[in-house]
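re: ur msg from earlier - yeah i can do the pyridoxal-5'-phosphate complex, just paste it... oh wait u already did. ok heres what im feeding in:
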Amino acid sequence: MIYLDNAATTKPLESVIAVIEKFYRELYYNPSALYTSATNVAFEVERARTYISEQLGGNGKVFFTSCATESNAWAYGSGVKNKKGNVVVSMGEHASGYENAKALISKGYDVRFIKLQSDGRIDNADFLKKIDENTTFISVIHCSNETGAINDLKKLSVSAKSVAPKAIFHSDGVQALGKIPVNCNELGIDLYSVSAHKIGGVKGIGGLWVRNGLRLNPLLCGGGQEFGARSGTENTAGIASFAEALSVFKNNDNKKIRALRENMKSALSAIKGVEFNDCEQVSPYILSFSVAGIKSEIIQRLLSDRGILIGLGSACASKHRNNRILEAMGRSMTHIEGSMRISFSQETTDTDIKTAASAICECVRNFRGF
Ligand code: PLP
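and the outut:
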């Protein structure tokens, strides 16, 4: 099996599984209880929170959620206060952000979408045009799950705050955390969504980093966990293993991963009609490309028969045949139908790349011959 769909999810790290096992076998107490066995668990939860918060740049705190979809929904739900102002959202958001923006429109909010450039980053001029002194909430994805394009959040937040100093700036950092440098303070943002299963953690645990001093509307009321902001017994194993995943994943050799990406790109360049959805500021973990005249689902199926797993853009959007983000980047329908996403991990080897690249070339040749 050659797994090249790591932007959809990653294989949990062995050390993550060990932490999970420890929490379910030994540290299973409810962290809200007052006996020592339970307070030890509460201590582990806070240790994980401190670690992840510090990794995100300090001066803020991570509130744990069940996934980044929940974090994004919370950011919108808490950041968008009333209908008086306007909301500015990039066209490049993952569905879990974009659908919240669409829901706001149907409730009568003034939502302004920022265009994408052909390289997948947001159009700065359009961003500045859409923001004004009445903007209350801004959301711009840090690193695109579709193409890997990295937005310059620092530049955007500085210009946004100069026009709308009170606006809350949210970013979806799911494909950035552990993969590219992230310091929410330096980036000048207020809310940042993260998820464990994209960095060798497990599914069912995410977080929303919140700048100190910013108060969120409680998401769930009840026993007062997560400082009263999100009640519900904590996913202690998920939380502790999220910190473990980050501590390992952040030490990945990005130079090696970038080289894998380059090698894959140059091998695929041999295909007639191939086009890359590439960008100068791109994550080393994602390579998006399209082969004209090909239906990517067919290539994906042929590859999977050979034990090679690749993605078709966003896994969450793969049930919809269109691709909103590539469309916003100005790609034609033929290009979109032939678009595929390869995403790497620390475990990916040079041999995997060679084998997968020649299999893709062969499948395309066979498809064309047929
Ligand atoms: N945001 C981005 C950029 C993603 O890639 C994903 C998952 O594909 C999500 C949000 C949703 O994350 P989760 O699966 O934790 O809800």
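cool cool. The chain has a mean pLDDT of 95. ping me if u need the other ligands too
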